[in-house]
Amino acid sequence: MIDFRSDTVTRPTRAMREAMANAEVGDDVYGDDPTVNRLQSYAAERLGFEAALFTASGTQANLLAIMAHCGRGDEYLCGQNAHNYRYEGGGAAVLGSVQPQPIENEPDGSISLDKARAAIKPADAHFAITRLLSLENTIGGRVLSLDYQQQARQFCDNHGLLLHLDGARVFNAAVETGCDITDITRYYDSVSVCLSKGLGAPVGSLLLGSGAFIERARRLRKMVGGGMRQAGVLAAAGQIALEQGPLRLQDDHANAQYLARGLASIPELEVDPDSPQTNMVHARCRRDKTGELSDYLAREGILIKAANPIRFVTHLDINQRDIDTLLKAIKTFYQHR
Ligand SMILES: *Cc1c(COP(=O)(O)O)cnc(C)c1O
After folding, report:
1. C-alpha distance from residue 300 to each of 102, 325, 330, 336 (Å)
2. Dist CA 234 CA 228 (whole Å)
3. Best mutation site among 134, 194, 221, 278 for ligand 1, i.e. most ligand atoms within 8 A of its Cβ?
4. Does the keyword Lyase apply (predicted)?
5. What's the 314 CA to ligand 1 centre distance in angstroms?
6. 168 CA to middle of ligand 1, Å?
7. In angstroms, what is the span from residue 31 Cα to ligand 1's centroid?
8. What is the atom index within ligand 1 of the atom nearest the CA of 196?
9. How many CB atoms are located within 10 Å of the residue 151 CB?
10. Ligand 1 pocket: which residues have CB below 6 Å?
11. Phi-psi region of 109 (alpha: psi -120 to 50; beta: other; left: phi over 0)
C-alpha cells in the first residue's frame, strides 16, 4: 500500500527494529531505563531545554504541558484550529479542568496577538485566569515565521503568560525556515515534539521544558496512565528518529513540491495555490468525487483520506515513483468518468 493519508503511517526501519530488539531497558517509572534516559537527555540538549520527558503520544505531551502550566480553573489561549483544542478529545478541560479560549487562526496559521490581548481575562472573580498561550508550528503544514514567534514571546512576557508550542512537526518547520531547531524552541517555555510522524518512529513523543516543569509533567504522566516501564524498547527507535529523521525531511518537502506540480496538471483537481506547505499538499476535487476516487485508489493499492479538499502527506515511505503511481491512477480514474 502507498499511503498518503498522514506521516503517522511510516513503519519502523530495519535499523529501528534492530535497535528496539537490542535496547538496554529498565523500569522507567523508577527512572531506571537507560535508553529512555539517554533519549530524554539527548532531546533536552538538542532542543535547548533543561529536561525532557518521553510520552506515549503527542496528545499526551500536550495534555501534560497544559496541566503542568495551568491549574484547575485556569485557561489557555489557542487557535480555533489548534490540535490541542480540536483533536485531543477536550483532554485539557476533561482531565485538567483547564478551559480553552480558542481564537480564530489567521490564514497563515498564526494567532493575531491583538486578538490574543483582547481575549486575556481581567483579574475579576467572574473569569478564569488566563495562564498560557499555545501555538502550533507547523499548523496544517504551514510554518510560523521566527519574527512572529519572537513577538509572541514578547507578548507573553508583557502579559505574564507562559508560552507552549505544539511542535508535533517542529522539525519540518526548522527545515523549511532554514534554521537550527533551537532558533525556534528558544522562544517557548515548553515544546512537544512527535517522534512518530515525519521523523519515522513507530510510537512516542517528547515534552521539553525546565527541570521543575518536567518533574510536574512526570507526576501527571503517571496519573494519566503514561508510566511505561521498559519503554526503552520504544525510545530506542525514537533515538534514531530524533538523530536521523530531521536530515531527510527536506526530501519529504521536495516530494510534496513534485506531487503538487503533478496534481496541478490534472484538470479535475484544483491544487490550493499555497500548496505545498512543508510535507502537505491540499487539492480540491472540482466535482466532488472524493469518495469514489478514494475507493478506486484503494483498489489500486493507494490510500488517501476521502475529504474535500484532499490532504496528501509525504513521508519516509513515499518516494517519487510512488507519486508517479498516484498521479497515473488519478488520471486513469478521471478518464473513465
Ligand atoms: C499529530 C499531532 C498531535 C498529536 O499527536 P499524537 O501522537 O497523534 O497524539 C498534536 N499536535 C499536532 C499538530 C499533530 O499534528
Report:
1. 41, 9, 10, 15
2. 10
3. 194
4. yes
5. 16
6. 6
7. 25
8. 7
9. 14
10. 57-59, 62, 83, 136, 166, 168, 194, 196, 205
11. left
pLDDT band at 288 (very low <50, low <70, confident <90, very high): confident
Question: What confidence category does residue 289 fall into, taking pLDDT thresholds of 50, 70 and 90?
Answer: confident
Question: Using CA atoms, how far apart are residues 18 and 15, in angstroms rounded to an integer?
Answer: 5
What is the tens place of the pLDDT at every residue in 24-50?
A: 999 999 999 999 999 999 999 999 999
Instruction: Check whether 253 has a pLDDT greater than 80.
Output: yes
Provide CB contacts within 8 A for 224, sequence distance 6+.
Answer: 60, 63, 64, 95
C-alpha cell at 131: 495562564
Beta strands 269-271; 190-194: pairing state: unpaired
The three cell numbers of residue 7 are 506521516
Euclidean distance between CA atoms 174 and 185, whole angstroms: 10
C-alpha cell at 263: 496534481
- 280 Cα to the center of ligand 1, angstroms: 15
CATH topology classification for 12-244: Aspartate Aminotransferase; domain 2 (3.40.640)
Q: Domain map of the chain by residue range?
A: 12-244, 248-335
- Return all residues near 124 (Cβ < 8 A) that are at least 6 apart: none
Bridge partners for 74 per DSSP: 129
Ligand 1 atom at minimal distance to the Cα of residue 197 = 1
State CA 130 to chain mean position distance: 24
| The CATH number of domain 248-335 is 3.30.300.30 | no
Greatest C-alpha distance within the chain: 65
From ligand 1's centre to the CA of 239, what distance in Å?
A: 19
Distance of CA 157 to the CA centre of its chain: 25
**What's the pTM?**
0.97
Output phi, psi for 305, to 5 deg: -85, 135
Q: Tell me the pLDDT tens digit for each residue of 112-156.
A: 999 999 999 999 999 999 999 999 999 999 999 999 999 999 999
Examine the pLDDT at 336 and tell me if it is beyond 80: no
Where residue 40 falls (left for φ over 0; alpha for ψ -120 to 50; beta otherwise) is alpha
